[in-house]
Amino acid sequence: RTAPDRGIGSHTLSDYYSRLARAHTAMGHMKEAVDAASAGIVTWSPRHNQRLAAVHWLDQALRNGGNLDAYIAYLDKSAEETGQDSPLVRQKAGVVYSDLGKHEQAIAQFKIALALLPNDVETHKALIQTYDRLKDAPGAVRATLALLDLDRHNLDVYRNLAERLKSDEELAERALTTIVEAAPAEAEHHQAFAELLQKHDRWPE
Hints:
Elements lengths: L10 H17 L2 H13 L5 H17 L3 H15 L4 H13 L3 H14 L4 H13 L3 H14 L4 H10 L4 H13 L5 H13 L6
Protein backbone atom coordinates (compact mmCIF):
# COMPACT_ATOMS: atom_id res chain seq x y z
CA ARG A 1 0.00 0.00 0.00
CA THR A 2 2.86 2.42 0.65
CA ALA A 3 5.20 1.45 -2.21
CA PRO A 4 5.10 3.64 -5.35
CA ASP A 5 2.84 2.40 -8.17
CA ARG A 6 1.38 -0.37 -6.02
CA GLY A 7 -2.38 -0.18 -5.60
CA ILE A 8 -4.41 2.92 -6.43
CA GLY A 9 -3.25 4.39 -9.73
CA SER A 10 -1.57 1.15 -10.82
CA HIS A 11 -2.25 0.14 -14.40
CA THR A 12 -1.03 -3.40 -13.70
CA LEU A 13 -3.43 -4.00 -10.82
CA SER A 14 -6.29 -2.37 -12.72
CA ASP A 15 -5.56 -4.62 -15.69
CA TYR A 16 -5.62 -7.72 -13.47
CA TYR A 17 -9.05 -6.74 -12.18
CA SER A 18 -10.29 -6.09 -15.72
CA ARG A 19 -9.08 -9.51 -16.82
CA LEU A 20 -10.82 -11.06 -13.83
CA ALA A 21 -14.00 -9.21 -14.82
CA ARG A 22 -13.73 -10.61 -18.35
CA ALA A 23 -13.39 -14.16 -17.02
CA HIS A 24 -16.41 -13.82 -14.72
CA THR A 25 -18.42 -12.23 -17.54
CA ALA A 26 -17.66 -15.19 -19.82
CA MET A 27 -18.84 -17.54 -17.06
CA GLY A 28 -22.06 -15.61 -16.47
CA HIS A 29 -21.11 -14.47 -12.96
CA MET A 30 -22.50 -10.93 -13.15
CA LYS A 31 -22.04 -9.93 -9.51
CA GLU A 32 -18.41 -11.06 -9.47
CA ALA A 33 -17.79 -9.53 -12.90
CA VAL A 34 -19.18 -6.14 -11.86
CA ASP A 35 -17.25 -6.23 -8.59
CA ALA A 36 -13.99 -6.97 -10.43
CA ALA A 37 -14.66 -4.34 -13.12
CA SER A 38 -15.47 -1.78 -10.42
CA ALA A 39 -12.20 -2.60 -8.66
CA GLY A 40 -10.45 -2.07 -11.99
CA ILE A 41 -11.94 1.42 -12.11
CA VAL A 42 -11.00 2.24 -8.50
CA THR A 43 -7.38 1.21 -9.12
CA TRP A 44 -7.00 2.63 -12.63
CA SER A 45 -4.02 4.66 -13.73
CA PRO A 46 -4.08 8.31 -14.85
CA ARG A 47 -3.85 7.36 -18.55
CA HIS A 48 -7.07 8.15 -20.42
CA ASN A 49 -7.08 5.11 -22.68
CA GLN A 50 -6.64 2.77 -19.70
CA ARG A 51 -9.54 4.44 -17.91
CA LEU A 52 -11.75 4.00 -20.97
CA ALA A 53 -10.81 0.32 -21.06
CA ALA A 54 -11.72 -0.17 -17.39
CA VAL A 55 -15.15 1.41 -17.91
CA HIS A 56 -15.62 -0.69 -21.04
CA TRP A 57 -15.26 -3.92 -19.07
CA LEU A 58 -17.84 -2.73 -16.55
CA ASP A 59 -20.22 -2.11 -19.43
CA GLN A 60 -19.49 -5.59 -20.83
CA ALA A 61 -20.06 -7.21 -17.43
CA LEU A 62 -23.54 -5.64 -17.24
CA ARG A 63 -24.35 -6.50 -20.87
CA ASN A 64 -23.07 -10.04 -21.07
CA GLY A 65 -22.54 -11.26 -17.52
CA GLY A 66 -25.93 -12.85 -16.92
CA ASN A 67 -29.35 -11.76 -15.69
CA LEU A 68 -29.33 -7.97 -15.35
CA ASP A 69 -32.74 -7.82 -13.66
CA ALA A 70 -31.57 -10.24 -10.96
CA TYR A 71 -28.37 -8.26 -10.45
CA ILE A 72 -30.26 -4.98 -10.08
CA ALA A 73 -32.55 -6.63 -7.51
CA TYR A 74 -29.43 -7.72 -5.61
CA LEU A 75 -27.97 -4.21 -5.91
CA ASP A 76 -31.17 -2.62 -4.59
CA LYS A 77 -31.23 -4.95 -1.59
CA SER A 78 -27.54 -4.44 -0.89
CA ALA A 79 -27.88 -0.64 -1.08
CA GLU A 80 -30.82 -0.75 1.33
CA GLU A 81 -28.92 -2.89 3.82
CA THR A 82 -25.52 -1.19 3.63
CA GLY A 83 -26.33 2.34 2.48
CA GLN A 84 -23.63 1.96 -0.17
CA ASP A 85 -24.24 2.25 -3.90
CA SER A 86 -22.40 3.13 -7.11
CA PRO A 87 -23.56 5.93 -9.43
CA LEU A 88 -21.35 4.59 -12.24
CA VAL A 89 -22.78 1.07 -12.05
CA ARG A 90 -26.31 2.51 -11.97
CA GLN A 91 -25.59 4.78 -14.92
CA LYS A 92 -24.10 1.96 -16.99
CA ALA A 93 -27.00 -0.32 -16.08
CA GLY A 94 -29.35 2.40 -17.33
CA VAL A 95 -27.51 2.58 -20.63
CA VAL A 96 -27.74 -1.20 -21.07
CA TYR A 97 -31.46 -1.20 -20.26
CA SER A 98 -32.04 1.64 -22.71
CA ASP A 99 -30.17 -0.21 -25.46
CA LEU A 100 -32.35 -3.24 -24.77
CA GLY A 101 -35.48 -1.13 -25.19
CA LYS A 102 -36.34 -1.36 -21.49
CA HIS A 103 -36.66 2.38 -21.11
CA GLU A 104 -38.63 2.51 -17.88
CA GLN A 105 -36.01 0.36 -16.13
CA ALA A 106 -33.32 2.59 -17.64
CA ILE A 107 -34.97 5.73 -16.26
CA ALA A 108 -35.13 4.18 -12.80
CA GLN A 109 -31.38 3.48 -12.87
CA PHE A 110 -30.52 6.94 -14.20
CA LYS A 111 -32.56 8.56 -11.43
CA ILE A 112 -30.73 6.54 -8.77
CA ALA A 113 -27.40 7.50 -10.35
CA LEU A 114 -28.33 11.20 -10.27
CA ALA A 115 -29.50 10.96 -6.67
CA LEU A 116 -26.01 9.67 -5.86
CA LEU A 117 -24.13 12.04 -8.19
CA PRO A 118 -26.34 15.00 -9.17
CA ASN A 119 -23.68 16.83 -11.20
CA ASP A 120 -23.08 14.02 -13.72
CA VAL A 121 -23.86 15.68 -17.06
CA GLU A 122 -23.55 12.40 -18.98
CA THR A 123 -26.28 10.78 -16.89
CA HIS A 124 -28.56 13.81 -17.29
CA LYS A 125 -28.19 13.59 -21.07
CA ALA A 126 -28.80 9.84 -21.07
CA LEU A 127 -31.98 10.38 -19.05
CA ILE A 128 -33.25 12.98 -21.53
CA GLN A 129 -32.55 10.65 -24.46
CA THR A 130 -34.41 7.82 -22.76
CA TYR A 131 -37.47 10.00 -22.16
CA ASP A 132 -37.33 10.87 -25.87
CA ARG A 133 -37.27 7.18 -26.78
CA LEU A 134 -40.36 6.70 -24.63
CA LYS A 135 -41.93 9.74 -26.34
CA ASP A 136 -42.46 11.20 -22.86
CA ALA A 137 -42.25 14.91 -23.69
CA PRO A 138 -43.02 16.22 -20.16
CA GLY A 139 -40.40 13.90 -18.70
CA ALA A 140 -37.82 15.08 -21.24
CA VAL A 141 -38.60 18.72 -20.42
CA ARG A 142 -38.21 18.08 -16.68
CA ALA A 143 -34.90 16.33 -17.28
CA THR A 144 -33.71 19.17 -19.53
CA LEU A 145 -34.58 21.74 -16.85
CA ALA A 146 -32.63 19.69 -14.31
CA LEU A 147 -29.61 19.70 -16.64
CA LEU A 148 -30.02 23.45 -17.09
CA ASP A 149 -29.87 23.95 -13.32
CA LEU A 150 -26.53 22.16 -13.40
CA ASP A 151 -25.07 23.72 -16.54
CA ARG A 152 -26.49 27.25 -16.87
CA HIS A 153 -23.99 28.42 -19.47
CA ASN A 154 -24.57 25.62 -21.97
CA LEU A 155 -26.34 27.35 -24.84
CA ASP A 156 -27.18 24.06 -26.53
CA VAL A 157 -29.35 23.11 -23.56
CA TYR A 158 -31.29 26.39 -23.82
CA ARG A 159 -31.80 25.86 -27.55
CA ASN A 160 -32.95 22.32 -26.90
CA LEU A 161 -35.42 23.47 -24.25
CA ALA A 162 -36.87 26.17 -26.51
CA GLU A 163 -37.37 23.61 -29.25
CA ARG A 164 -39.10 21.21 -26.87
CA LEU A 165 -41.48 23.91 -25.67
CA LYS A 166 -42.31 25.40 -29.08
CA SER A 167 -45.87 24.03 -28.99
CA ASP A 168 -46.57 26.17 -25.90
CA GLU A 169 -46.06 29.80 -26.91
CA GLU A 170 -45.77 31.18 -23.37
CA LEU A 171 -43.32 28.54 -22.15
CA ALA A 172 -41.30 28.74 -25.35
CA GLU A 173 -40.97 32.50 -24.91
CA ARG A 174 -39.84 32.00 -21.32
CA ALA A 175 -37.19 29.51 -22.45
CA LEU A 176 -35.93 31.99 -25.06
CA THR A 177 -35.60 34.94 -22.68
CA THR A 178 -33.89 32.78 -20.08
CA ILE A 179 -30.93 32.46 -22.46
CA VAL A 180 -30.11 36.13 -21.88
CA GLU A 181 -31.21 36.23 -18.26
CA ALA A 182 -28.74 33.48 -17.37
CA ALA A 183 -25.80 35.65 -18.45
CA PRO A 184 -26.93 39.18 -19.36
CA ALA A 185 -23.37 40.50 -19.66
CA GLU A 186 -22.21 37.81 -22.12
CA ALA A 187 -22.48 38.62 -25.81
CA GLU A 188 -22.63 34.95 -26.75
CA HIS A 189 -25.95 34.53 -24.92
CA HIS A 190 -27.44 37.61 -26.65
CA GLN A 191 -26.26 36.25 -30.00
CA ALA A 192 -27.84 32.84 -29.32
CA PHE A 193 -31.12 34.56 -28.41
CA ALA A 194 -31.01 36.60 -31.63
CA GLU A 195 -30.32 33.49 -33.71
CA LEU A 196 -33.35 31.73 -32.25
CA LEU A 197 -35.56 34.77 -32.94
CA GLN A 198 -34.22 34.81 -36.49
CA LYS A 199 -35.06 31.11 -36.84
CA HIS A 200 -38.68 31.95 -36.02
CA ASP A 201 -38.77 34.90 -38.47
CA ARG A 202 -38.99 37.48 -35.68
CA TRP A 203 -36.67 39.88 -37.52
CA PRO A 204 -37.48 43.22 -35.83
CA GLU A 205 -36.74 41.72 -32.40
